[in-house]
Design brief:
Length: 563
């Protein structure tokens, strides 16, 4: 949830003034206004200025400025809660950047598309793909290096979404980059990300240190504070049972989000609901959760949907309203299930996107190589022309040797033409070899993917028809022998198609079967331990832990909810 990220890309944009020849002062002024509003997190004002920039660029026919205008419009829409417009404008900017071969714009657009996938789609795969592209484009000689710092901040935010504390290293890189290069946006974004991640690991002292650092930067440099900093501060005070301060900071986060940055309304209301729950104001907590859910539905930002439902379910459960609680838990689980069903299709679509992006990068590199080859050819032709002129001058001054020199000139011309033809033929052969290699690589990749999908289909057939997952002695070696393959390729096929390792794959079947059994009150009741053993688990502890992680409640609680 690092709006700061966008701050980074903002600054990146504003400094890189490409293609202002047509608009001259007007383009420069509008770009500067966008930069200033962005630096002050005033995304509503930025939308107005960016719209003027877009109209001027279209009037003047300046595609570069049109690309940047769409970038600014997409950025402002993203942080003003208009997800559809954000996606449309950012992809328009990306198309223009690709058409123009503008690596600077491309790196910044990919950065913000990564934010979109984190905050709106909750799609970690696509988010990481875009952010790695931002780093790749930003690292090119013609790219925008400052985008790399922003991408690290966004990768830290992605880690926060996945509750992956290894993202602390990404946040630290962003913070140190900002500190060493005196980039306040990077520094404050990195500090805010470090605060959130340290809080996630339970290191509240370190989290408070970086919250204070971010607030100091905002105050000293007259920058509007980010709502996420107040959200983290509220959570820290809540953990210390300072519920009055926690309540106040949550309201401050809501106020900042409503006035300048609607992207943070959902998490701000969610934090307020947590404080109210801890204060035993369960009705007030649910009212705040209803407001959070309303902002989720209006903006289309799905990231907090499941967290809101779970907390609402806990409130109903504590109020004794078990039917309402079960309904909330079911909606949360259904949302998770739907996401899992879409995951495989999403992976295939996203892989196609990755392949397309890689082709775009190769084409960009090829354009740069072609430009260098043209420069070399021009230099070679100039040298040949100079030599010919020199020979003509010598011939003019040495009339007695005219015949000999003419023959020499003719011979050298023939050799030059021959060398030029040889060079052209070599270039054509190199291009043919490169194209053949690319086709061969793509063919092999398709073959490997088809083999993996075929093997995966055999595995799932055995699992579903013969219930192999119920065998506690089931191992990769035994399953590989059954399929007449090796354990390494079996693991690769499962991971390639499902995104899970072998143990996760087998346990997913066991948990689904457990849910089916516990959801059917007509089946004979077993103890939880008996059910665990019948599904292939070696002990009930492992079963309880995996069931809790998958459904958000223990098997016993789930059975009671069904009853």
């Amino acid at each position: 949830m690092r709006i700061a990220i966008i701050l980074l890309t903002i600054i990146l944009l504003s400094t890189h003034l490409f293609g202002t020849s047509n608009g001259k002062e007007s383009f420069t002024t509008l770009r500067e206004e966008c930069r200033i509003t962005m630096d002050h997190n005033d995304f509503k004002s930025m939308a107005v200025v960016a719209d003027r920039l877009l109209k001027l660029s279209q009037k003047e026919g300046n595609k570069v400025e049109e690309g940047f205008a769409n970038f600014y419009l997409g950025t402002s829409a993203l942080f003003n809660g208009d997800a559809d417009k954000a996606r449309k404008c950012l992809h328009k900017a990306k198309d223009i950047a690709y058409q123009l071969g503008n690596d600077s714009l491309m790196s910044q657009v990919c950065n913000n598309l990564g934010i979109y996938e984190i905050m709106v789609s909750s799609n970690p795969y696509m988010a990481k793909t875009y952010l790695l592209q931002a780093i790749a484009y930003g690292s090119l000689p013609s790219g925008f290096n400052r985008s790399v710092g922003g991408a690290y901040t966004n990768l830290a935010e992605l880690s926060l979404m996945l509750r992956d504390t290894t993202g602390i290293e990404y946040a630290r890189k962003s913070y140190e980059y900002g500190r060493d290069s005196n980039r306040l946006s990077n520094m404050s974004c990195g500090a805010a990300a470090l605060a959130s991640l340290y809080y996630l690991t339970g290191r509240n002292d370190s989290a408070m240190k970086y919250v204070t650092t971010a607030l100091d930067i905002y105050e000293k440099h007259n920058i509007v504070p980010m709502p996420d900093v107040y959200i983290t501060l509220s959570a820290l005070e809540m953990d210390k049972n300072n519920l009055t301060d926690a309540f106040r900071y949550a309201l401050t986060a809501i106020g900042e989000a409503e006035s300048r940055n609607e992207l943070y309304l959902s998490p701000a209301y969610l934090q307020l609901a947590k404080v109210q729950q801890k204060s035993n104001d369960l009705k007030g907590s649910n009212l705040s959760l209803e407001k959070a859910m309303k902002t989720v539905r209006q903006s289309g930002m799905k990231r907090y949907y499941v967290d809101i439902l779970k907390l609402m379910g806990e409130n109903y459960e504590r109020m004794g309203l078990m039917a309402e609680a079960a309904k909330c838990y079911k909606q949360a689980n259904d949302s998770i299930e739907n996401a899992n069903k879409l995951e495989r299709q999403q992976i295939f679509e996203e892989r196609e996107f990755v392949l397309k992006s890689e082709r775009e990068l190769r084409q960009q590199e090829q354009r740069e190589n072609d430009a260098r080859n043209r420069e070399k050819l021009i230099t070679f032709l100039i040298i040949v022309a100079v030599l010919l002129m020199g020979l003509l001058v010598v011939t003019f001054l040495s009339y007695r040797h005219r015949t000999v020199l003419y023959r020499s000139i003719v011979q050298q011309n023939r050799e030059a033409i021959k060398r030029e033809e040889e060079l052209k033929n070599k270039i054509l052969k190199m291009e043919e070899i490169s194209a053949k290699n690319a086709d061969e690589v793509e063919r092999k990749q398709n073959q490997n993917r088809e083999r993996a999908e075929s093997l995966y289909a055999c595995v799932t057939k055995l699992m579903e028809e013969e219930r192999l997952y119920a065998d506690p002695q089931l191992s990769r070696d035994r399953l590989a022998d059954r399929l007449e393959t090796n354990r390494t390729y079996l693991s690769h096929a499962i991971n390639e198609v499902s995104g899970m390792n072998f143990a996760q794959f087998v346990n997913s079947y066991r948990i689904k079967e457990a849910i089916r059994i516990l959801s059917d009150p007509t089946l004979p009741k077993q103890t939880i331990s008996e059910l665990a053993v019948s599904l292939g688990f070696n002990n009930a502890t492992t079963f309880n832990k995996l069931f809790q992680a998958h459904t958000g409640m223990s098997p016993s609680t789930y059975r009671k909810s069904v009853s």
